[in-house]
Amino acid sequence: MVVLALAQPARAGQPPASRDEAPPVADDAIEPVPIRAPAPRPTSGALHVESTAHGARLVAESLDDDTGGPSTVELGPLPVHASLPAGRWRLRTESAGYQPWSLDVTIVAGEPLTLEVEPELIEDAWLELRAANEASEGAEVSLDGELLCGLPCRERVEPGKHRVAVRKRRHKPLDFPLRMNQADEVTLDVRLQPSTSRAPAVLTGALGLTTLVAGVTFTTLGVQAQRSLAADLDGFGQYDRDDPRFENGRRDLNVGIAMWGATAGLTALTLYYLLHQPGEASRADKRRRNLAVQLDGVAPLVSPLGSGLGVGLGARLRF
After folding, report:
1. What confidence score (pLDDT) does residue 27 get?
2. Does 204 share its domain with 231?
3. For position 202, what pLDDT does the model report?
4. Cβ contacts of residue 104 below 8 Å, gap of 6+?
């Protein structure tokens, strides 16, 4: 292309323009047009996971080595709306109330992926026992008469009615009924109290044993005196009212009867000291929630003991 330039004559009083000086630019010159760079191509895609299992946490594990990000991403509780780098991912749920679930998906850059996840409920329930004080640690927990675990512990149990017993030497025991529903999580904070001293029971028991032996001895002596008198009578023997066997036998029988009465009283007192535990009783603070029952926008609450409900109010019970 050839560009023609018209030279303008020099005005009077102005020196001629030199060759190095740029020619004047006309006022109507064409302005440069800005060039816009193309938008960068997307490197991630949107993931939408819908589910009625509110609260179950979703985790994504990368199956590619070139995603440029972390290999494991915590996506949070369901439902989830997140963005993931393009590539292959393995989605899995983590929840104590649901069975394990996983699915391999491919995230395409710039394209959304919508899934509906419905993990299945666990068939059992969770029972967690914690030691609320140092004295409760190491206590044995029995379920329906069979040893379950030692405090503290967390075990899966079958739904239904159960009998829980907590025992520890020299501590007041706990024994109470417990109903478990499917996918329940029951937490018991156990606080055992020291048992009452057995010294009074040992003392009364020893005295009761002594009076028992004395009662048997004196009763035997009195019966022997009666039999001796009866034998003389059968043999046509002679004796009178002044025979010492009359007085000795009557005295021994009376003492024996008194000893038997004392033995009965001491036995009752011994049982009272053994079974009665004065002072503060052992107790367990209980919280119940159903891992599968949640309302939209409402966190799961704690239900009272024995109510059988998934949601409700908190409770503190003393056994």
Report:
1. 55
2. yes
3. 83
4. 63, 88, 89, 90, 91
Q: Which is nearest to 178 in space by CA: 282, 280, 284?
A: 284
pLDDT for the residue numbered 22: 54
- CA distances for 233 relative to 106, 230, 270, angstroms: 114, 5, 45
Residue 235 lies in a domain: yes
How confident is the model at residue 228, as a pLDDT? 75
Q: Does one domain contain both 81 and 59?
A: yes
227 neighbors 200 (Cβ within 8 angstroms):
no
How many structural domains is the chain composed of? 3
Best CA proximity match to 182, nearest among 293, 19, 317: 293
Phi-psi region of 148 (alpha: psi -120 to 50; beta: other; left: phi over 0): alpha
Pair 104, 132 in one domain: no
Q: Is the same domain home to 209 and 256?
A: yes
Question: Three-state DSSP class for 245?
Answer: helix
In a domain, 143, yes or no: yes
Instruction: Please choose, from the candidates 95, 317, 158, the residue with its C-alpha nearest in 3D space to the C-alpha of residue 303.
Output: 317
Q: According to the model, what pLDDT value does residue 298 have?
A: 34
Below-70 pLDDT ranges, the chain = 1-30, 33, 37, 39, 66-70, 232-243, 277, 292-319
52 and 118 Cβ atoms separated by less than 8 Å = yes
H or E element, residue 275: helix 244-275
- Express each pLDDT in 272-300 by its tens digit: 877 776 778 888 889 988 876 643 333 33
Q: Which domain holds residue 69?
A: 44-116
d(CA 242, CA 60): 108
